[in-house]
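[#protein-structures] MJ: dropping DUF2796 domain-containing protein here for a structure pass
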Amino acid sequence: MRRLLLALPFALLPMATIQANEHGHHHEHDQAHGSLGAHEHGVASLNLVLDGQLLELQLESPAMNLVGFEHAAKSAADKAKVAAARSQLQNPQALFGLNAGDCSLSETELESPLFEDDEHEHEGHHGDETHGEHSEIHAHYQLDCKKPDELKQLNLAELFERFPTTTKIQVQLIGPSGQQGAELTPAQPRLSF
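AK: finished. structure tokens for DUF2796 domain-containing protein:
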């Protein structure tokens, strides 16, 4: 299922090392958690792999970017924000501007401590589980594209519009033209395959 995306970090590791060296330092937070990037509000990452007719996407974002907070949703207003974000994340074709290629969604996985709290409540469980101060939302999608040659670009304009506190998305793409990386913003939301 995740075979392609699991290989992506290793394929792009040289690029991440170059970027880290350009910035001239590593944050202690990064080293303590063994990650390549720090949890930074407003910034998300998106990995894409197009291999034949299979398109896989993985979005990782601080919960703050998508729901406006990172604590467990206790109030009705917070629970509504979590439910709304979860609902919007269920439609990757719209969020990522994937209108070409005749792609159909074959698999979706949404993971976050915020979603777990919502699920536990629906199941009748009320745990005292505490979460770290840095909650994240991870979304993994697998799409089957009947005409992958028609996929020409990624357009994140809709994602930036629906989640306006997201100001920057670090994109890593492996496709027919090789690998590439870009930093997309509301002013520059497109990347060609």
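MJ: nice. Helices lie at 3-23, 28-33, 63-67, 76-89, 92-95, 113-123, 157-162.
AK: one more thing. The first strand starts at residue 43 and ends at 51.
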